[in-house]
Amino acid sequence: MSKGFLLDTDILSEPLRPAPDPALMLKLEEHDSELATASVVWHELVLGCRRLPPSRKRRAIETYLREVVEATIPILPYDGSAATWHAEERARLARIGAVPSFVDGQIAAIARVHDLVLVTSNTAHFTTFSGLRVVDWRAR
Q1: For residues 28 and 98, is the Cβ–Cβ distance under 8 A?
Q2: What digits encode the pLDDT tens for the residues 126-136?
Q3: How many Cβ atoms from other residues are within 10 Å of residue 140's Cβ?
Q4: 3-state secondary structure the chain
Q5: What does the domain layout of the chain look like in residue ranges?
Q6: How far does the chain reach from its first CA to its final CA, in angstroms?
Q7: I want to staple 49 with a disulfide (CB 3.0 to 4.6 A). Which of 61, 83, 91, 125 is the partner?
Q8: Surface-to-core class of residue 56, CB atoms within 10 Å of its CB (0-12 exposed, 13-18 middle, 19+ buried)
Q9: CATH 3.40.50.1010, applies to 5-135
Q10: pLDDT, tens digit, for every residue of 46-86?
Q11: Do 42 and 76 form a contact (C-beta atoms < 8 A)?
């Protein structure tokens, strides 16, 4: 895959904020052709949307998810390669007493097996993973 960055949920949610971070929005635009996300991130976004009551806000999110995220950003699966890497990392991390959340492990695995840099503001969630490159585009 020629994409360079896997976007976490908090990064993909940024354009929906009342006042999106201008620096982050610039990075998204700058790397537009290099972006992907994970199927489990897609799940988090859709779940968050579906939990909202019918409203203007929900319709705006549904439109963004359909017309921007789903239409323009590859959504990579949690497949056999990702599951294997994830299992190996969970076993390694369990031995040292540092087991992250299962979903964070899935996101890390998808980024790692596709050789993508994970873009997240929650960098602390991903520091224990071996060989995973993580960047925070909000960091100044």
Answers
A1: no
A2: 999 999 999 99
A3: 4
A4: CCCCEEECHHHHHHHHCCCCCHHHHHHHHHCHHHEEEEHHHHHHHHHHHHCCCCCHHHHHHHHHHHHHHHHHCCEECCCHHHHHHHHHHHHHHHHCCCCCCHHHHHHHHHHHHCCCEEECCCHHHCCCCCCCCEECCCCC
A5: 5-135
A6: 29
A7: 61
A8: exposed
A9: yes
A10: 999 999 999 999 999 999 999 999 999 999 999 999 999 99
A11: no
For residue 128 the two structure tokens come to: 């224990």
* Alpha-carbon gap, residue 37 to 80, rounded angstroms: 17
Q: Is the pLDDT of residue 1 over 80?
A: no
The residue count of the chain comes to: 140
- Model pTM score: 0.93
